[in-house]
Amino acid sequence: MTQEFEMTDIGLMSYYLGIEVKQPDECIFISQERHAREILEQFKMINSSLVTTPIEVGIKLPKYEEGDVVDPLYFKSLIGSLRYLTCTRQYNLFSVGLISRFMESPTITHLKVGKSLHYLKGTLDYRLFYSSSKEFKLQGYYDSDWAEDVNDRKSTSEYVFFVGNTAFTWSFKKQPIVTLSTCEA
Predict the structure, then answer these.
(1) Measured between alpha carbons, how far is 39 from 148 in angstroms, rounded to an integer?
(2) How confident is the model at residue 7 (pLDDT cuts 50, 70, 90)?
(3) Residue of higher predicted confidence among 26 and 5
(4) Is the pLDDT of residue 45 over 80?
(5) Which of 36, 58, 178, 181 is the most buried (most CB within 10 A)?
């Protein structure tokens, strides 16, 4: 694996394993724009129409959906590519995590939901921004649904934590047990 460095008008830029780091004075930008573009080309979605959200709001996907079966290798390749992009695109965690649940027997319905590449195309230039700050206020946001999975009634939770205005950790996780209350979820 090689690492490329080039000087740009905003400072030093490096590209390593699909992650681009640009570091002008006093801040850092981290993105995966080039890698996202490669994924769109690989899955022949570079000329697709744009959508405003990574997944339809309130969607419920049954595990054994009626319909044509999709090639599992193609589906796994799509999911793996999208999962890697969550390193810099935490807003995609929910949609990628949801469709990851159907890798053993994906159908056309699952594939259509997995084509959040329509959303990806409109967010190619999105990046994480980190700057120096004297503000060290820790903020965290947590959300959980309660038994929303139609297949096993398990809850899904997610969180993001900030120091100042900078997100430094985030997660999306399906709970290992069925919860009996919203507090437990």
Answers:
(1) 30
(2) very low
(3) 26
(4) yes
(5) 36
